[in-house]
Amino acid sequence: MNTNLGIENIEVFPGYIILEEVHKSQKHLIYRAKRKKDNLEVIIKTFIDKYLKKEDLLKIQREFQITNKLKVDSVISCYDLIPYGTGNLAIIFESFGISLNNYLLSFENKIIPLDEFLPLAIKIAEVGKVIHEKGIVHNNIEPSNMMV
Question: Quick one: pLDDT band at residue 2, thresholds 50, 70, 90?
Answer without folding.
Answer: very low
